[in-house]
Amino acid sequence: MIKAIFFDLDDTLLWDQKSVKEAFVATCRVAQERFGLDPDLLEDQVRESARKLYSSYETYEFTQMIGINPFEGLWGNFFDDQDEFRKMKELVPGYRKDAWTAGLKALGVDDPDFGHELGERFPQERRKSPFVYEETFATLDALKGNYQLLLLTNGSPDLQNTKLTITPELAPYFDHIVISGDYGRGKPDPGIFEHALSQIGLQKEDVIMVGDNLMTDILGANRAGIKSVWINRHNKERNEIIPTYEIHHLQELFAILKEL
User: Fold this and answer.
1) What CATH number matches the domain at 4-15+131-259, 1.20.1730.10, 3.10.350.10, 3.40.50.1000, 1.10.579.10?
2) Of 116, 154, 246, 260, which is the most buried if we count CB atoms within 10 A?
3) Global confidence as pTM
4) What is the tens place of the pLDDT at every residue in 27-39?
């Protein structure tokens, strides 16, 4: 009998990839207006240079462990009270500027000042464009009161709480919110799942984990002995990690819960 549901946040309830995409579109449009650059090409170049730069920093191993991606680095402030996050806070202004400057340079515009301007513009645009999947609230409405709900998200507490602040309707659904940066390790580490279980006072057979990421949400749940539901909205090919269930829309969760 399932008594609680663990939900991932990004690209499970919040459509983070779309928010990032829209922020890129709006920011790259500024470069198109200023220099006539192809916005799609600029986005590709900035994404590429961001990935390269991000993986070159001493904080990279930490960001991998906590689960913070390069594009979150392009807009997060990391006002978190911990040494590694303090390092990130110092790094990110330069990182933003350098990623955008390198993207511009790849398209023939060598202008670090403009790179800085775009680097500061992107976080504003990302904050302006929070997207939630259309079925998120209807699903949570139907579950609230029947199950304990826990949000289990990888990331910086400052940044994940910012996402929840700009989508204020979401947090009240949850009895508990567990953020990897607070715990010290991210999904797929089974420890964070065990920590989440201790927060709600339940056993692993009492809960089910719903998430979009096979390598974090599903692998972590499997390692912790928790049933998993992979939400595969975009018909991705599955890798070697096998979820207990696979769905394409959050509403399909109800049939699984009924069966359990």
Assistant:
1) 3.40.50.1000
2) 154
3) 0.95
4) 999 999 999 999 9
